[in-house]
Here is the input.
Amino acid sequence: MKRILSTALAATAAMGLFLALASERTVAADHNDPPTIAGTAEDIGDFFAWHTGTGADQKLIMVFTFAGPVAPVAGQAGTYDPDVLYGVHIDNDDGDALANNDIWVRFAQNDLGEWGMQVQGVPGTTGPLVGAVETTITEGDVSVRAGLFDDPFFFDLSGFVETLNTQTLSFDSANDDFAGSNITAVVIETPYAAAQGGAGPVLNLWATAARIGS
Here is the structure.
């Protein structure tokens, strides 16, 4: 599987990440333990955001993972659901956690059963980006891709469980219980200046998923 940049975890500190409450009843948890929706298409695992480059070449990369992690098997594909709407939301002016730019991602199948996606609202684009999953879709300096990736989340889960059971700190910083697991993800890359929208240098970003029906 393709690997998301390993710097993603460390780089999230460069952005403010906020939880968006999309309804009166919101189910949330860390990585892979949400009640009732674990492993389903609306189960967002993690959201990463970081920037690269300098000046006019500076890029913003946003990644959200969902429907996993899963053990790799032959012929494995990503998990897609036409009734789930994903959002990446950007607050680029005053840090009020109200989005000034919404990116919407949705999946669908054609008559042959092939999965594709539509991504609209990406800063720097003139209209929706449409294409097949497991391919990179581009417009100018913007690119998006959805597919199965090596899970970038790093955590000593067994050490965490042992700590809970023994009340003795038992973490091993070299142990990653998610190593080798796969997860479905969407990767969005856009010019940082386009995401800023002419406002200040600080961006606050968050991701949402909602089951909306067909």
In short: The helical segments are 8-11, 157-166, 192-196.
